Amino acid sequence: MPARRYRHALPQLGEGLFLTDGGIETTLIFGQGVELPEFAAFDLLRRPGGEAALREYFRAYSGIAARFGAGLILESATWRASDDWGARLGYDGKDLIDANLRAVGLLEEIRDQHGPGHVVISGCVGPRADGYLPSRTMSATEAELYHGRQVETFARSAADMVTAITMNYTEEAIGIARAAQHAGMPVALSFTVETDGRLPTGEPLAAAVARVDAATAGYPAYYMLNCAHPTHFAGVVESGAAWTRRIRGLRANASCKSHAELNDAKELDTGDPAELGLQYADLKRRSLPNLAVMGGCCGTDHRHVEMIAAACAPLFST
What we know:
Blueprint: E1 18-19, H1 24-32, H2 50-68, E2 71-75, H3 83-88, H4 93-113, E3 119-125, H5 140-155, E4 161-167, H6 170-183, E5 187-191, H7 205-216, E6 222-226, H8 230-237, E7 247-252, H9 259-264, H10 273-286, E8 293-296, H11 302-312
Parallel strand pairs: 1-2, 1-8, 2-3, 3-4, 4-5, 5-6, 6-7, 7-8
Helix pairs in contact: 2-4, 2-11, 5-6, 6-7, 10-11
């Protein structure tokens, strides 16, 4: 039986700081020169040396969390490990099940070597279509069926929860939440927004959170924001409205460029790690009082997460 520690009581719902990793795909591609067809980090698990590269990647963040006395959320490298993306890489259904289980198994190893402190394993789910554009939308029922297979695989593993990353329209987020509820898995939903703080569909962030909560009886454990820079959404969350307390996690981009600009860029924009850390701390103090899970997205790596920890850890000391 897999060793599940926190499926029924997620520790990041408490008062402490929890760190997670940065932009795994951009780190591997631009920082380590690794080829990732379809941006699929899970494919490394079947390549010589690939598992070692992932192990080294996650250990860096384990070390940062230990140094700052923070909790750690290990997010599986399975953002692309669903049926449609897997088929593009030659994976059948059994291959994908094995890949998702292996990805979680690797995190069990990192967790067990971490030492004292809470370490949560999360099964990462990505969008069926493009992470920036809702080019192939589904109904909530279709999304529940599509993502249910991956979620059910995580339910059989040592994963404590599921996190859906770069959700860019509401129906897909609702479907994943329902699939997680059916599987008995806690779920966090992370929306990506454009430079105006709205989802790529144009829906306001507040409306998206409200719609998902209404459609699922508030099932998600919490919400997150990712793949956007703090300057893109700071004005949206500064109202102090009740819905902003549902946001507990942030994985921002290093760059303040738009998604379109990032797509066209020839070089990685890593921004300013120290400035990004200060922006996280400002959001925690001013706008997002329940913010507790902090990591990065495109263009970020261990340097950014270390600066985020340095800026934000003092906010959790009292």
